[in-house]
Design a protein that fits this description.
Elements (H helix, E strand, L loop, with lengths): L1 H27 L8 E4 L5 E4 L6 H12 L13 E3 L6 H8 L3 H7 L13 E3 L6 E2 L5 E2 L39 H14 L15 E3 L9 E4 L5 E3 L4 E7 L7 E6 L4 E11 L6 E2 L4 E5 L8 E8 L2 E3 L9
Antiparallel strand pairs: 1-2, 3-4, 5-6, 7-8, 8-15, 9-14, 10-11, 10-13, 11-12, 12-14, 12-15, 15-16
Length: 316
């Protein structure tokens, strides 16, 4: 009996010793190497494992990048310059400021126009131009020097400018340059509501939505797929493509330094960038790209600002 009790007590003692040994081993062994990812805000929100060092070179590069000013930062807030915001593209900046996106890329010597940074400051007026308080852009008369910047790859080369000798001093009156006269006449024509209708059906096309400040930037007309879309005035194609979200296949025409017109949701584009078009020319076919039905969304931009197209269309 005593032997049995002693055996049980002995077994009980060995069991207790085994538990002590296991606990001691657990406390002195190396910890597990699996670690949860942690957000490293110092390095732009990337995720690293605890204990993993980014290295002194990475930290130095990140610090230098944070201290380096963005291109054009010294011009922030100045007239004629624009600070890039989240979601911006060069096409949208051009449309909102009344310029060809290619011109903006050239004025800023952008090697890759598809890569612009939030906070970057871009020139949005021609070099040498003067911007008045009401946003009108003028060029100095008789400027002797012309600023040149590198052309973009695959971009159309700028038109060559010809130099002419000044008129003799005996001329009694000076006439304004032809380009200035043409620009003024076209702008005056627009202000007198002389734009043609962008649809062959004209006012008989059903109006789906009218211009509303801050809500709808133009007029939406219904129609049939393939209906002709027409240029409302002489101009130059400054954009033709589908790179602007919400517009589908889009054409933007520049008529002068004041006015742009935009034609969106087309199923087929019939003109290319840098092409000159005439008033009434068929430039596209109506469609429903990036829209829930066949329509033409038409905008008039005055100095980049959307204005009510109905004020500029000819009476029918």
């Amino acid at each position: 009996m005593n032997g049995r009790l002693f055996l049980k007590n002995s077994m009980g003692t060995w069991v207790s010793l085994a538990m002590v040994v296991l606990l001691t081993a657990a406390c002195t062994s190396r910890p597990l190497t699996v670690q949860a990812p942690v957000e490293d805000r110092h390095h732009g929100g990337s995720k690293t494992n605890l204990g993993q060092s980014a290295g002194p070179s990475s930290a130095t590069e990140a610090s230098n990048a944070a201290l380096k000013p963005l291109p054009g930062a010294e011009n922030a807030g100045k007239p004629g310059y624009y600070t890039v915001k989240p979601g911006d593209t060069l096409i949208r900046i051009g449309l909102d400021n009344g310029h060809n996106w290619r011109d903006i890329a050239r004025w800023n010597a952008l090697e890759n126009p598809n890569t612009i940074e939030v906070g970057q400051v871009l020139r949005i007026v021609p070099p040498g131009a003067v911007v008045s308080e009401n946003g009108v852009v003028t060029r100095p008369v008789g400027s002797a020097s012309v600023e040149t910047v590198p052309a973009l790859p695959n971009a159309a080369a700028p038109a060559k400018t010809s130099t002419t000798k000044p008129t003799p001093a005996s001329t009694s009156s000076a006439t304004p340059p032809a380009s200035s006269t043409a620009t003024s006449s076209v702008a005056a024509e627009a202000d007198e509501a002389a734009f043609a209708w962008p649809l062959a059906s004209g006012s008989s096309a059903p109006v789906l939505a009218t211009f509303q400040e801050g809500k709808n930037k133009g007029i939406d007309w219904g129609g049939q797929a393939g209906d002709a879309v027409l240029a409302v005035a002489d101009g130059r194609v400054v954009y033709a493509g589908a790179g602007l979200r919400g517009y589908g296949n889009l054409i933007i025409l520049k008529h002068n330094e004041t006015y742009l017109t935009a034609y969106a949701h087309n199923q087929k584009l019939l003109v290319k960038e840098e092409q000159t078009v005439r008033k009434g020319q068929k430039i596209a076919e109506m469609g429903n790209t990036d829209a829930d039905r066949v329509m033409l969304h038409f905008e008039v931009r005055k100095l980049g600002k959307p204005v009510d197209p109905s004020r500029y269309l000819q009476a029918r």
